[in-house]
Design goal:
single chain; alpha+beta; Beta-Lactamase; 8 helices; 6 strands; 19% strand; globular
Length: 207
Amino acid sequence: MEKKVINYETMLRVAKAISHSKDPEEVALMTVESIKSALNVKGCSLFLFNRKTNELELATSFGLSNEYINKGPVSALRSIAQSLEEGPVAIYDVLDDPRIQYPEEARKEGIASILSVPIVVGGKLIGAVRVYTSEPWEFTLDDVNFVQALAQIAGGAINMARYVKGLKSSIEVLKTMKEVQTQRSTRRTPYEGVPISVPASELAEHV
């Protein structure tokens, strides 16, 4: 029961922050930070889909090393492709699943399990959110629903930024985000470090 309260609180915080933000890079960063902290996992990343190259291009991540982030291009046709076509996919053992594109790199990073959730806006795939754990993890329906909810909130905000800025595709938004990231060193969002556990008494104080 406590976990559901935590996730609900996290979704409220992120939704409120996103509603006041027109910066897609900040939206993406808040999303991955919040998911990592709320689920107490190793890391989280958000990708945008490039239809020209059939690759998932990294928008932002939290908790992962630069070495793993720069391991190579992530193919939408090879890297857990099923999650982009049919919905969320949970990989229990990254070392024993053919859907993992970079199993050796995942092992070196200390990743045991991965949850991949597509970001679909207006019936079109625009990206994916992936959650990484350091221990074998059987993702529950609550875990999946929570990640899906934040992924869709982020996707809607990124898509809106595309129209607000008059950009042609989510990849143009991604390019803008990367330019901002090169200028950012240690910026923290207001929702970095969302508590893993939130006593009901503390929540009541903020109602």
